[in-house]
Amino acid sequence: MLLAVWIIMEIRGEEGVLEALDAVDRVRSGTCSTLEGDTEYMETLYTPEELVLVDIDGEIQSYPLREAEEAILKFWAFLLNRPPNGEIRRLYRPDLAEAGAALHMWERRFEREHPRRGRLDGLPSTGYS
Fold first, then answer.
1. Which domain of life is it from (predicted)?
2. What's this model's pTM, rounded to 2 decimal places?
3. Which helix (H) or strand (E) holds 14?
């Protein structure tokens, strides 16, 4: 249950998905043995085996990393397929689709290429620099 809450309340959108998938890739590849995060409502711990979530009430739930990754990817697919909201005008790179703008912002923020670039629907292998 906490996994769904975390995805909706904390990941929220494309840039959050990119951050979560980067964390998954970093612990899985061994670049980091663990990664910790702290958001508004939850603390997260990524390990090569699992994602551990702790909510503000102290409830702890862990999920196999593969299961968490699959849920994050399903949320990404949902975000890509939702109809655009014509009433909202995005200020950052409105010339790009939401996924492209999120990728551009993520790569500028972290000063490196996202590990899923070109491998995830909606993310080109080149461009947006």
1. Bacteria
2. 0.90
3. helix 14-29
